[in-house]
Specification:
The structure is a homodimer of 568-residue chains. Chain A has 568 residues and is an alpha/beta fold. The first copy, chain A, contains 18 helices and 22 strands. Chain A has two domains: 308 residues, Alpha-Beta Barrel (nicotinate phosphoribosyltransferase); 122 residues, no CATH class. Chains A, B: This is Nicotinate phosphoribosyltransferase.
Chain lengths: 568, 568
């Protein structure tokens, strides 16, 4: 099998390989609604028809793959594997489930439900590309083997758990790519996501794809993702005046003294700012309810003061109010965190805000004030960040919601789950659309790397074929187009599909890594990719191929199954 | 309050109006992940700042509304209310939640967490438009009143629970509108939805918006939605030949006799079809694995035989194979259900299939065979159904997935939650974009109906104003544009916001109706709407207005809050 194991696939002991043992080891799906009933009705109809024909235990092999990269790009990040493994580890019908199925399928014989009562995934094997890997169309992300009736039942939940996970991870990775490594990326999508776990999943997978933190507290709790968040416009407008602040005292950071009237200190600073020539005298009266809100927030969080400055008017009110509070905090040894802009021309406003911060640093001799963090957060997406980059801006952190978590520019990834073999007989699904013809046979898949360390091509081979080897020439053929083929001498060969659920086989089980490790894998894989595959405009397609043997077999089977005249 | 109660708002006894009593009455949220931690981090930051300032119990009023109808349309269907009420009925922090919050907010005083331990929604009041109502931009869908810190914590989950629910219900209603009342609409979105409860919510709300059934078994179980589903391409290609059918016997429907070799009966019919002149002799050899799959499925479901006919070739293989099995079933007293087309030119194939069914009815004298149900299901959406309608087709039922459940053409509805009053003082949120200025004040909202029974205009008034009355002239003003105003003499007046969660008040609580009732409400409301508001192309915007008094107040407050020079 050559020296081709994936980096973190560890062959740990599989001693307690019983179904229950494995369930305890991997835990339950994040969403308690991911149960055995979360599937399409037709999977049960088919299960019954298979069972009636005595065919339910036929050994089937299915491939899970997608046909086209999303977002007009040429790469996808694979995600959702851990949830799939958790799903099958806990796969079991309860008596409640069975009663319900009996009620909706009254025409089925009673023994069928006895069969369902016994169904679990102990006889299923799952091979998968490691989560967080960069993947490409047509190459199986997962290969699922087992009794045909059971694996069919898994089709819908697996596709559900992979589709959105991979889509939103890819979207996050694209946002990271356009924002650049130095920016802080915050996922703010909970309120606009498609339901509660549209949000929970989004938070998990955006972090995996390269975000730094989320606003979603439950996701922070479930996955250990760092949390971020300060205050909203409503907080600002809930204040009417500075009279609403009952306790005006603030102890200095080092605890050595207490400022009895922090409000007055802020007001003094506001006056100094308003008369300072270097600040251009642009400031008139600022909004007093906003000032009260900022002071109140600073008294609660003197070490983490970050203010939303656009409730009334960024440059006329928000920025001078913020500076006054930040300077007063500075007098007491605290360092303000920065501002958030949530409307208007973010390029212009961030540049203007930066000018003020630098002028304040200069005017009042406050080292570091010019570097105040500027967060922007108004309906941002790949395009707007790209446009900001082109205009020039001073934003340090982006808070991204709607477009990120709903994958607004393409809200679905078309993952499919196709039968490729049954009882060791290869199967094909034809279509008038060649792109929709499935690639038959139980396959092994490899990534071939070139001299410069970049991946060159993915190749699928029949299980019986020898693995490609580093330094040995191999012919890589386009699966459907005869003229497209190339010889490759790989410098390095990586086998893509690892065994994550060995079923009754004695194969070693690859570890499910932590979210942090998956995130690192994703970052590393994207860095390893040739830049032209990943660029936003006119990216180069990555090549996906089959071996010469598999190519011949596909076309033989195709001719065999298609009605005469179909291929003329 | 005039004769203006909403149709199904019943004033049932509120005797057990305690928080726990109400929780028991309404049940838990559908998704167990919808807990008190499902909110944005900044809501907790604000709660702490309010608490530090002694302001947390200040009585706040927030409006939940959206600014623009989705999908280029001029109407939206409001959904998600029941889940919001279930959410607040069960609102409570567990000790686990508290520990987690302490760990992520170590800078907060311990007493704050004692306060959080006591928080529930017994002091919150929720007023809402009934679920399933047709709604319009700017008019509050919900008004939430209560302690400012608590209502802020509810902002994120409420917006999450309403946004996608309303979006996908509206999408379903639009699909129903373009398909027409006579077609059967099936939601097939589970595998492509955004996570498990993207799917569960989609199934619930598509049914609400006018769909007839779903493929999602768990949704059928949770909500009682009818289930549909037969078999997939994999089922067809899992068969190799007719030899795989072990038990070939089939008892007739009336139980009077047994056909010992159903396979031979099917083969006889296939030969008759192939030589029949009236069928045009188009049929050569059909695919035998497909035929085996159909026979096997028919033996399992003789009374519900519905076949997917496009695995190999619809007209050369799928249709003749289907007809042979259907005719053999007919010999035994069964009636086949129909076919499903999942690829190719659905208009052409449905018309050709219909021709064959009619010819079979004629040739073999099988009354009703020509009316065989044709279901279509390949990447359908509003546009493709519209295009099919224009081309002419013979499809009876549409199975719709990806575009429906992900709301592909617009994946988010921009619901917002804005503070409109605190401690009885009206508040406004300004913005350089006039469309984003909030409408201040605690308001009541009414729908005014004209002579022909159509709704004419929605109007918001200050709480202190008298309600509009049928037969009395009232001036309706555009909230922001001075010149847009009109006198209306309504024939009928409907108050929109009903009390669904009275908190500590003694207001009668409106009932949460069943899903079926909400679905009927939605259908009725759409039928009551003037057709030009609902048409697909260039629909007429529905008018939304404020009273003269509220108009004056908004503009007075606006001038007051905006920095000088802002409005020049």
């Amino acid at each position: 099998m050559a020296a081709t194991s994936a980096p973190h696939a560890s062959a740990h002991a599989n001693g307690n390989g019983t179904h229950a043992g494995m369930a305890a080891q991997v835990g339950a799906p994040t969403n308690p609604m991911a149960t055995a009933l979360l599937t399409d009705q037709y999977q049960f109809s088919m299960a019954y028809a298979y069972w009636k024909a005595g065919k339910h235990a036929d050994r089937a092999v299915f491939d899970l793959y997608f046909r086209k990269n999303p977002f007009g790009g040429e790469f996808t990040v694979f995600a959702g594997l851990e949830e799939c493994i958790k799903f099958i580890a806990n796969y079991k019908f309860t008596e409640h489930d069975i009663s319900f199925l009996q009620s909706v399928m009254p025409m089925c014989e009673g023994e069928f439900f006895d069969y369902l009562r016994e169904v679990d995934c102990s006889d299923v094997e799952v091979y998968s590309i490691p989560e967080g890997s960069v993947v490409f169309p047509k190459v199986p992300l997962m290969r699922v083997e087992g009794p045909v009736a059971v694996v069919q039942l898994l089709e819908t939940p697996f596709v559900n758990l992979i589709n959105y996970a991979s889509l939103v991870t890819t979207n996050a990775a694209r946002h990271r790519h356009v924002a650049g490594k130095s920016k802080v990326l915050l996922e703010f999508g909970l309120r606009r996501a498609q339901g509660p776990d549209g949000a929970i999943s989004a938070s998990k997978y955006c972090f995996m794809g390269g975000f730094d933190a989320t606003s979603n507290v439950l996701a922070g709790n479930l996955f250990g993702i760092p949390l971020r968040g300060t205050h909203s416009h409503a907080f600002v407008s809930s204040y009417m005046s500075l009279d609403e602040i009952p306790d005006k005292a603030l102890r200095s950071k080092d605890g050595s003294r207490v400022c009895q009237d922090f409000v007055s200190l802020v007001q003094e600073w506001l006056q100094k700012i308003q008369v300072a020539d270097s600040l251009g005298g642009v400031f008139g009266d600022t909004n007093q309810s906003e000032l009260a809100a900022f002071v109140s927030y600073a008294l609660a969080f003197p070490s983490n003061f970050l203010a939303l400055v656009d409730t009334y008017d960024v440059m006329r009110s928000g920025i001078p109010n913020f500076c006054a509070v930040a300077l007063a905090l500075h007098d007491l040894g605290y360092k303000a965190s920065g501002i958030r802009l949530d409307s208007g021309d973010l390029a212009y406003l961030s540049v203007e805000a930066r000018k003020v911060f630098r002028a304040v640093e200069e005017e009042f001799n406050v080292p570091g004030f010019g570097k105040m963090v500027i967060t922007a957060s108004n309906d941002l997406n790949e395009e707007t960040i790209d446009a900001l980059n082109k205009q020039g801006h001073e934003v340090d952190a982006f808070g991204i919601g709607t477009y990120l978590v709903t994958c607004y520019s393409q809200a679905a990834l078309g993952c499919v789950f196709k039968l490729v073999e049954i009882n060791s007989k290869p199967r094909i699904k034809l279509s008038e659309d060649v792109a929709k013809v499935s690639i038959p046979c139980k396959k092994r898949c490899f990534r071939l790397y070139g001299k410069e360390g970049y991946p060159l091509v993915d190749i699928m081979i029949r299980e019986s074929e020898p693995s490609p080897k580093a330094g040995e020439r191999i012919l890589c053929r386009h699966p459907f187009i005869e003229s497209k083929r190339a010889y490759v001498v790989p410098q390095h060969v990586e086998e893509l599909l690892q065994c994550y659920w060995p079923g009754r086989s004695d194969k070693p089980r690859a570890e499910l890594p932590s979210l942090d490790k998956i995130r690192s894998r994703c970052m590393q894989q994207l860095e390893k990719l040739r830049p032209d595959h990943i660029r936003r405009l006119n990216p180069t397609p990555y090549k996906v191929s089959v071996s010469a043997k598999l190519y011949d077999f596909i076309h033989c089977l195709w001719l065999n199954e298609a009605p005469v005249g179909e291929l003329q």
